[in-house]
Amino acid sequence: MSELRVATAGDDGTVGAAVEAVGGAVVPASEADALVTFGEDALVDTALADPEVPLLPVDAGPGNHSVPKQRVDEALDALASGEGWLEPHAIFSVAVGDERAARALLDVSLMTREPARISEYSVRAGAEEVDRFRADGVVVATPAGSAGYARAAGGSVVVPGGGLSVVPVAPFETMPDTWVLDADLTLVVKRDDSDVDLVADGRVVGSAPAGTPIEVARDGRVEFLRVPGVAATR
Q1: From 132's CA, which of 34, 37, 46, 89 has a CA 20 to 30 Å away?
Q2: Is residue 233 part of a domain?
Q3: How many Å apart are CA 234 and CA 232, to the nearest integer?
């Protein structure tokens, strides 16, 4: 880039100062070569708005492939020198029955509304039922979100372009299985001993009635910017 032109979202002043330090300019999103997001909420909100330029996440939490705040100047200097590369990430839609409920960048989960109340869940990949289990909930994480809540629950960290990490939350068994599935998924609450919330990217977006399929399907993509020599937040 001859001049680094970036837009920002959620900036506390750190990004703007770092852009100016490398001879760049903060501009409106319609004029930008990149969009720097500060924090996880800004990353999620910006990604789900289908930006036309790639995102550079800053301090966006574990698993979001983000630049630590204290190294923003290094990352922007690398971008200004043309050293960055693009990393595509899928965005997913979530539907309850025939009704679209949300989109998600990081993860989707079904969680019993009352703490420590177990429900029964079914996970299907395409036409195949992968498993049925009793647990407090189940989380489905994208590669961008797989090092967050899903990892804390015992799941795998998935490389960009990989499948979905599916993890039972507090399952009623001693050696639960987890999966990485490269297919659109269907989740179903098989028992309604307790109300079950539908959560997308950490926000409650509805409920999951017993017997109603919850479809998680690819619905677009967003590109992250990565730069050499700057460790991503994990």
Answers
A1: 89
A2: no
A3: 6
Q: Clarify whether residues 168 and 54 are in a common domain.
A: no
Cα 193–chain centre separation? 29
Regarding whether 131 and 48 lie in a shared domain, the answer is no
Residues 137 and 32 in one domain: no
Structure tokens at 205: 């977006």
DSSP letter (8 states) at residue 161: T
Q: Supply the CATH number for residue 52's domain.
A: 3.40.50.10330
Tens digit of each residue's pLDDT (9 = 90 or more) over 190-204: 987 789 999 999 999
Let me know: does 187 contact 216? Beta carbons within 8 Å.
yes
- Sign, CA dihedral 171-189-110-156, equals positive
Reported as type and span, the H/E element at residue 138 is strand 128-141
Rounded Cα–Cα distance for residues 117 and 136 (Å): 6
Pull the structure tokens for residue 121: 């869940």
Q: Are residues 187 and 134 in the same domain?
A: yes
Amino acid occupying residue 210: A
Q: Of 42, 40, 58, 224, which is closest to residue 149 (Cα–Cα)? A: 40
The answer to the question of residue 232 being in a domain is no
Neighbours of 42 (CB within 10 A): 21
The single residue listed with the structure tokens 């880039």 is 1
Report the percent of the chain where pLDDT is more than 90: 62
Expressed as residue numbers, the domain containing 54 is 5-83
C-alpha dihedral (60, 66, 72, 76), degrees to nearest 10: -130
CA distance 113 to 196: 5
